[in-house]
Amino acid sequence: MNMKRPSLVIAALALAPLAALQMPQIAPSEWAAKDTHQNFTVAANAYTDAARAKDKFSKADPYKAGLLAVDTYFKNDTNDPVHVDLSTIRLNVDSPDGNFHLPALTLHQAAAKIAHPGGPPSPKVFRLPSIAPTGEDGKTRDMEEKLSPLTLQSDVVPPHGTIQGFLFFDVDHHFDMVAYASLYVPDLKSVASNDGLIYFEVPLGSKAPH
């Protein structure tokens, strides 16, 4: 028996007011890129334009660091909370140059890439033996704070509720591949019944499989 299930249900119900505040200005039915079945909708909007990304993220601009930001929307029209495993979401690319499967970055990974687009900083050399490096990366931490309010705030979608936020993928500045890309969301389950939903695949580009 799964003893954690009741607490997850309570937590999901508590999130309902928050989810309502996070609803986008446009309804999911108006999103060009979406997949709907089993009374659940996944919609996505990829930020492939430099000016648009800069306007949205300001100094925490993922585009400049070669990251694709995908505004992602989950709408649950069932009577039970639905858990989405964010760790298994990926960007599937089916292009003439080959097939790629890119995992969604964690908040820390995205922030570190934006803070240090050329790679992690070199360790500092301390001349005094009594001073040791702390391992703190203030620039990455600052980027995390800027990005966090824009990301998904939960992995549980309340019944008849929504959540919305950005996912990030490292496309290494190859934004042209997005024309062949789809957002793949494979692991969703009803919290109450533990029944899995069929995977969702949202085409982000005109040349992606539909």
The overall number of domains is 1
Strand proportion: 25-35%
Number of DSSP strand runs? 11
How far the N terminus sits from the C terminus, by CA atoms, comes to 39 Å
- Using the alpha-carbon principal axes, give the shape: globular
Mean pLDDT across the residues is 83
Unreliable spans: 1-25, 130-135
* SSE pattern, N- to C-terminal: HHEEHEEEEHHEEEEE
Strand order of the largest sheet: 1-2-3-8
Number of helices: 5
State Rg: 19 Å
Give the class from helix and strand content and strand pairing.
alpha+beta
Helix-residue proportion? 10-25%
Instruction: Characterize the biggest β-sheet.
Output: 4 strands, antiparallel
At a glance:
The protein is an alpha+beta fold. Helix content is 20%, strand content 29%. The chain has one domain (5-203).
What tags apply to this protein structure?
four-stranded antiparallel sheet
Task: List strands and helices in order, with pairings.
Layout: H1 5-14, H2 16-21, E1 34-37, E2 40-47, H3 50-57, E3 67-76, E4 82-84, E5 90-95, E6 98-103, H4 107-115, H5 138-147, E7 156-157, E8 161-170, E9 181-185, E10 188-190, E11 200-203
Antiparallel strand pairs: 1-2, 2-3, 3-8, 4-7, 4-10, 5-6, 5-9, 9-11
Written overview of the protein:
This protein is 20% helix and 29% strand. It is of the alpha+beta class and 210 residues long. The chain has a 4-stranded antiparallel sheet. A hairpin with a 2-residue loop joins strand 5 and strand 6 (98-103). Helix 4 packs across helix 5.
